[in-house]
Amino acid sequence: MSRRVRRKVAKKGKDKVVLPSLPEIDDEVSCSDSNEAVDWTSLPDDTVIQVFSCLSYRDRASLSSTCRTWRALGVSPCLWTSLDLRAHKCDVAMAASLASRCVSLQKLRFRGAESADAIIHLQGRTLREISGDYCRKITDATLSVIVARHELLESLQLGPDFCERISSDAIKAIAFCCPKLRKLRLSGVRDVSADAINALAKHCPNLIDIGFLDCLNVDEVALGNVVSVCFLSVAGTSNMKWGVISHLWHKLPQLIGLDVSRTDIGPTAVTRLLSSSHSLKVLCALNCSVLEEDTNFTANRYKGKLLIALFSDIFKGLLSLFALTTNSKKVNNVFLDWRNSKTKDKNLDDIMTWLEWILSHTLLRAAESNPQGLDDFWLKQGALILLSLMQSSQEDVQERAATGLATFVVIDDENASIDCGRAEAVMQDGEEGGINVLAGLARSMNRLVAEEAAGGLWNLSVGDDHKGTIAEAGGVKALVDLIFKWSSGSDGVLERAAGALANLAADDKCSLEVALAGGVHALVMLARNCKFEGVQEQAARALANLAAHGDSNTNNAAVGQEAGALEALVQLTHSPHEGVRQEAAGALWNLSFDDRNREAIAAAGGVEALSSLTGPWILDSGASDHISEPEYGKDDWSRKALAQSCSNASPGLQERAAGALWGLSVSEANSIAIGREGGVPPLIALARSEAEDVHETAAGALWNLAFNPGNALQIVEEGGVPALVHLCSSSVSKMARFMAALALAYMFDGRYQVL
After folding, report:
1. What positions belong to coiled-coil segments (predicted)?
2. Is 348 contained in some domain?
3. What is the structure's pLDDT at 615?
C-alpha cells in the first residue's frame, strides 16, 4: 500500500520530520534553518483534540503516551462521550483503567457477559445509551446492577442474539431504575409478563420505542397499557393472540409504527389494525406466511397508511405515504434522498430511522434462515433495501445490512457457491451500486462495519464476473488498507479481507491490482505475524493465487522477493490446521516455478518441511483392508503403514505437497535433499492414490527424482516400480501415465546410467 505523495524532509541529526510538499511553503522550507526541528507539542490544543477524535481507541492511547501535554489532552471529556468496546476484551481491570476518562460518557456499546459485568466499573454515571450483543449469558443480576448505576439511561438495547437468562424481573428493575427511558429493545426473552410491562408503563412515562423481538411469550393486554409508545416491534415473537391484539392495540393513542414481521399474524388482524388505528402510519409484516397465503388481500386500500410486506412495493409506498420527493429517476433511492434532504421533518425522521432499524433486523434474520419463497422478493426489492440500509447513519443498521447482504448471496458455505441472480441484484446501480457501497463501508472507522463489508466483498468476489467490478470500484485498495488499519487484534476483519483478496488474486488482471495496492506486503505480514488459523489460511491462499500467474505477470517473483515471505510459508506448513498446511503448500508449489524462489525455498527449510508434510500422518488401522497384502509381501508392513497414513490427509493437501516437491525437485541439489529427507516413500504412497490430481503430481515428482541414481535406487527399493507400472496401465490421466513412463525409463534405460 504505497500512497505516492511527494515529501520534503527536514533533518536534524538522526531525526527526520516529514513535511507536506505544498507550493506555498516550498520557499519557506528551502530558506529555513536546516537544523530547526518541529515542536509538535506547540500545536493548539483544539487541533490536537481534533486529531485524537479521528483515531481509534488504541491509537489514541498510544499517542497520549508520547508526552504529558498530549496525555492530558487525551483524556478530554469531549473525546470520551461515546465508547465502543466490542472489538476489545473489556474486563474489570480494563474498565477501571478507563474510568477517569468516562466522566462524561453518554453512549456505550459492548459485547458479551464479561464486558457487561465490567460496565459499572467505568463509573459512567452520565450514560444515556447502552447497547450490547452476544448477550446469552447476561443474567438478571448483572442487568439489574447496570440499570441501578445508570438512572439517566434513555436507551437500552440487547440483541439481536437471544437474552436467554434475562427474565421479567430484570425488566421490572429497568422500569424502577430508569424513569427517563425512551427506548427499550430486547431479543429472545423467554417471558415478558404483565407485571413487567405494567411497571414500564407506570414508571417510564417517556417510553416511546419498545421492541420485544423473538420472545417466547409477551403479554399482549399489558402492552395495550403503554400509552406513551410510538414504535412497537414484536417481530419473531411467538404465541401472540392476534384477536386480542387487534381489539386493543389500535387504541394506543401515540402508536405510529408497528412491526409484526416473522409472526403468524393473519389478514383479519392486519385489516383491523390498519382500519381502526387513527395514529398508525406504518405496519411492517415481512415474512408473515399466514398473511402472504391470502391471495385476495390487498395492501393499497388503506389511505394514508403503509403496509410493508413481501407483496407490497415498499419504495413506492414510502414515497407516496410521506410525500417524499426524489431528484433521481429511481424510486428505490428513497432512503438516500431522505437522508440528503435539506428540509427536515422530525416526525418523518423518527419514522424513517425506526424503519431502517426494524428492516435491517428482519432482513438479517431472513438472510440467515433463508426460508423458501423469498427469491422474488430478494431480487426485486430485498437486495436494494439492504444496499440502502448499508448507507444509514446508524452504525448498527450498517452492520446488520452488510451482514445480511454478505449472507443472502451465499447458497453453500462449504463449496463457496453464490446465487448468481442475487449477486447480480447487488451489482445493480441502485443506491450507487452494491460494490461501491461495500468498498466505501470497508473504509469505515467502525471495525465491525468494515468487517461485514469485507465479508460482502469476499462472498461477491467468488463470481468471476464480479472481480473486475470490485477492482474498478476501488475494492482492492480498500481491502489492502483494511489489513494495515486493523493489523492486530481483529481476526474477523483480517480473515475476510484476506479471503476477498485471495479470490480477486485468482484473476490475472486483479492480481496485478492487488500487488500494486501493496497486497503482497500486507498478506506476507499476516502470514508472518497473525496466529489465527483462519487468517493464516486465507493469507496463504491469496499468496498462492498471486503466484499462480507466472507466465503473465511478475507477481510470482514479487512474492518470493518480499522479505520473510518464503520463510513464513514454510513455517505455516507445520501448522496443526490442515487448511493452513494445504494453502501454504499450494503457495510454495506455485512459487517453485521461479528459479530464484526454488533455491530460496530450499534455503528456508522447504525441502525438509514438505518432505515431512507428505509423510508423518497417523496410521488409520481401519484402512488396512484397502491394500492387498501380496503386493507388498507379508512382512513389509512399514511401507503399508506409510501408504495408509498418507491416505489420512485430504486429497488437496496431498496434491499440493507432492506438487511443491515436484517443483523443487527440478533442482538437482533439492532432488538429492528430498531423497535424503525421506521424501521418496510418501511420494510412492501418493502415486497409489485413486485421486487423479494426487497421483499425477506424485508421478511428476518421482520422475524428477529418478534423474538421481541414489533416488532411483530408493524408488526401486521402496516398491515404487509396481506403483509406477500401475499408473502407466490404469491412470485416466495422460499426464500421470506419461510421467510414470518417463520415471521408469530413466531408472532402467542404460543410456542414462541411473541403475
Report:
1. none
2. yes
3. 57
